[in-house]
């Protein structure tokens, strides 16, 4: 069992947050630590292996609510070959490192509730406004950690962004990115993922990895279409301690 004080989430959510990762045989260990964990934190996030219903039901019986499954996948950029059908959207889009004006616009778009499918934005105890502030903090953290911010331009207009960070030699993560709401539903999500792959290839990398929520159905379809390989899935359950105390 791994217990991590989520200091970054305390800043994002203004709550004391802990993240606990439990293996299939660690429910009893978690239960023995549960009182201490809950007494010291306001928002508890528990991650468990998918498909383990005994563990899932055991946590739900203790008041933890299922919120999403996290899906982690990656693709070998050296073996990637996209369907020529997508060339038509690539012909009217482009990418590159953001300039200062574009960077400012990206942050403004995120503040305008660009992301709405994550567990925080969907949670009635938090909501989309707080979820947007959380994504601002996440982007700031990625850039501080050395990630590069890329723009996506569609017919000459800034339409989205993505970030790339080298996790280890030749292996990159693209943990944050999206298309601005007014440009959605025209195929730019596919273009974004192709640009991520091409950018990593241009940097001499071999793999790009990403993680997304099962609540984002479009992301799942896009990554499967582009040939990403599933690495890991985890159920995520949460509990709001301050809400329980108020009642």
Task: Describe, in plain words, how this protein is organized in 3D.
This protein is an alpha+beta fold and 247 residues long. It folds into 2 domains: 2-70 and 235-246, no CATH class; 73-232, Aminopeptidase (3-Layer(aba) Sandwich), CATH 3.40.630.30. 39% of the residues lie in helices and 31% in strands. The chain has 10 helices and 11 strands. The chain has helices at 7-13, 27-39, 53-61, 87-90, 100-111, 119-122, 128-144, 188-202, 217-225, 241-246, and strands at 2-5, 17-21, 43-49, 65-76, 93-97, 148-154, 157-168, 171-173, 177-179, 207-213, 229-240. Strands 1, 2, 3, 4, 5, 6, 7, 8, 9, 10 and 11 form an 11-stranded mixed beta sheet that branches. α1 (7-13) packs across α7 (128-144). The longest helix is centred in the middle third of the chain and has 17 residues, at 128-144. The mean pLDDT is 93.
